[in-house]
Amino acid sequence: MQLNKPLLGVNFFAGDVVGGIGPYLAIYLLSLQHWSPGSIGIALAAGSIATVIMQSPAGAIVDAVTWKRTLLIGCAIAIAASTLGILAFNDAAAVYTAQILIGSASAFLGPLIAAVTLGLVGHAYFTRQTSANQAWNHAGNMIAAILAAILALTWSALGVFWLVAAMACGMIFCALLIDRNAIDHDLARGGLAEEKKGSGNPEGIMSLFEDRRLLVFAICIFLFHSANAAMLPLVSQKLSSNSDAEHGIAFTAACVIAAQLVMIGMAIFCGKKADVWGRKPLFLIAFAVLPFRGFLFAYFENPVALVAIQALDGVANGIFAMVFLLVLADITNGTGRFNLAQGVLAMLIGIGASLSNIVAEYIVQFTNYTVGFMSLAGTAAVGLIIFLVFMEETLVKQTDVSPEPAVAE
Questions:
Q1: How far is CA 371 from each of CA 37, 45, 88, 121, 376, rounded to the nearest angstrom?
Q2: What ranges do the domains of the chain cover?
Q3: Average pLDDT over every residue of 12-38
Q4: Which of 39-43, 91-95, 120-124, 386-390 has the highest mean pLDDT?
Q5: H or E segment at 387?
Q6: DSSP 3-state assignment of 336?
Q7: What sign does the dihedral 76-79-80-81 (CA atoms) show?
Q8: Cα separation of 268 and 281, whole Å?
Q9: Are 357 and 229 spatial neighbours (Cβ–Cβ below 8 Å)?
Q10: CB atoms near residue 331 (< 10 Å)
Q11: What are the DSSP E strand ranges found in 259-402?
């Protein structure tokens, strides 16, 4: 089966759109607006909190609607408009409003892209297409970071805001190339293909919470993002604390480039090994990197060393982005609740990310960066132990089940 090329394009541009202006906002607020670390933490958390509130409803809506492509385009428009709104209004209210709108739209984008992927290619080719999606997503992030550094050094630190808006336009163009009639909406919600379905009704919502694997996985991803979310914003601030905004953005872009380059390789690697090794060994590798990375960030000050350490984020998040979807597809296969499960777990990710940013920023404000990074490393270590001991493998080998019918080329 050929890879769906418009879907690859959507993922390429989505890399810089889903996260909005991300860590660059911290530099903008610190260096140009002179906000305190605690206030920056609250601003960063505002988007995450909005995502938390919207995530479960978003998953349920994506499961239900048959106009997924239109919803995808609408979310990209909202993120572009909100990002430029920060520049247009240039005050605290604009920052918080934009972060809330970006967080709300982002709550839909992850489930939408995963649902459209599953609806287009089915379970049989989901690993292959998802691997390619993630590789293109990371490539888009890397190229956007290169452009952000160039814009910051040659034009203005504000160029990154315009860059996100431009990437959103590219995402919209690619989404329009997807044949909306080719999306099987029963498959897209984790149900059965139209030719196989019986009643076609999804299982009850509570059936999700009866699966022990999903509960353990939820706890682990909460701890994963509680440890991981604040690391790059803290590194960005650490890099820019002794320089101007333009060089701070350039160093942060270098961090993103280093990580995304590794993520491309990890997405391809996971695509080849996830159906052979299983999901758990790969996720253990991702989890093991986090405490080590936090410890290194705590004790290195040199910008070059910090950029090199950030490359380890490519291992952790490169694996996570891929395996997260595969584990959920395994657990929810046949339930019709794939996107709802995504929404619930993404809500926990948002809570973890919000707490990570708020707590870590205040720890830094009242102590120092070393203590902040060590607290994140400790959280990661707890999550690693829980996942190692309690999480079961979710992959069912194809030889153990009746084969699915071939998917049309």
A1: 15, 20, 37, 46, 9
A2: 5-189+209-395
A3: 72
A4: 386-390
A5: helix 369-390
A6: coil
A7: positive
A8: 16
A9: yes
A10: 18
A11: none
CA distances from 390 to 288, 311, 316, 393 (A): 16, 29, 20, 10
Q: Which residues of 298-324 are buried (b: 16+ CB within 10 A; e: fewer)?
A: bebeebeebbebbbbbbbbbbbbbbbb
DSSP letter for each residue of 35-92: --HHHHHHHHHHHHHHHHHHHHHHHHHHHH-S-HHHHHHHHHHHHHHHHHHHHHH-SH
Tell me if the pTM is above 0.85: no
Q: Give 304's contacts (C-beta < 8 A, 6+ positions apart).
A: none
For the structural domain made of 5-189+209-395, what CATH number should be given? 1.20.1250.20
Question: What is each CA distance from 298 to 194, 371, 375, 391, in whole angstroms?
Answer: 53, 7, 10, 29
pLDDT digits (tens, 9 = 90+) for 311-321: 888 888 889 88
List of E strands, 268-369 = none
DSSP reduced 3-state for 153: helix
